[in-house]
Amino acid sequence: MAIHHNNILANPHFRKDWQRRVKVWFDQPGAKKRRRNARTAKAAALGARPVKSLRPAVRCPTLKYNTKLREGKGFSLDELKAAGIGRKEARSVGIPVDHRRKNRSEEGLKLNAERVKAYRERLIVVPRHSKKNKGKKPDLKNVSTVRDTAAAFPIPAGVVAEAPRAITAEEKDVEAFRTLRDSRAQHRQAGAVAARLKKKEEAEAAAKK
């Protein structure tokens, strides 16, 4: 093939020793064991503190996945207010705060507020510096159940699927397309209808004078 235009001259490198540059993952089993040991050491170093922070239940984005719930980054300020806890206190006891989140539904707000309340009921806070606890061992019963927050406070199912059933006669008589079109037309013409009624009332009031 002839060379056209002012292009770079072809200089293919076909004799490189690629076997010395290939990447392999033979250390994957060892890395898995190393990560597991690191998690165990971290849990032992934390003592009675939760290994994982409590996370809110949030909706997945887009119309395709919004029926599912997943773990979010942090609780919103409205959720903490509904649970009766401040943002500084929440961060100090392992409750992450996301000030950018907005609550779009009462159900989501109530769900996450209940999660915070349930977490606080089972949480045992041991002060770092306190004269009362000096020389005394705190009562840490049932702390092991609180350390794994994902297992103790699982994310609930987003939508429970409805069981199959027969279509009723009333549902068969409903015309879905006509209902949607009428609703759309009423919403679109609501302003004009209200203005027309107001004008009519003003005209009647002027005629009575």
UniProtKB/TrEMBL annotation:
Residues 199-209 have a biased composition (Basic and acidic residues). The keyword Phosphoprotein does not apply. InterPro entries: Ribosomal_eL13, Ribosomal_eL13_CS. Keywords: Ribonucleoprotein, Ribosomal protein. Residues 185-209 are annotated as: Disordered. One of its GO terms (molecular function) is structural constituent of ribosome. One of its GO terms (cellular component) is cytosolic large ribosomal subunit. GO terms for biological process: translation. Belongs to the eukaryotic ribosomal protein eL13 family. PANTHER family: 60S RIBOSOMAL PROTEIN L13, LARGE RIBOSOMAL SUBUNIT PROTEIN EL13. This is 60S ribosomal protein L13.
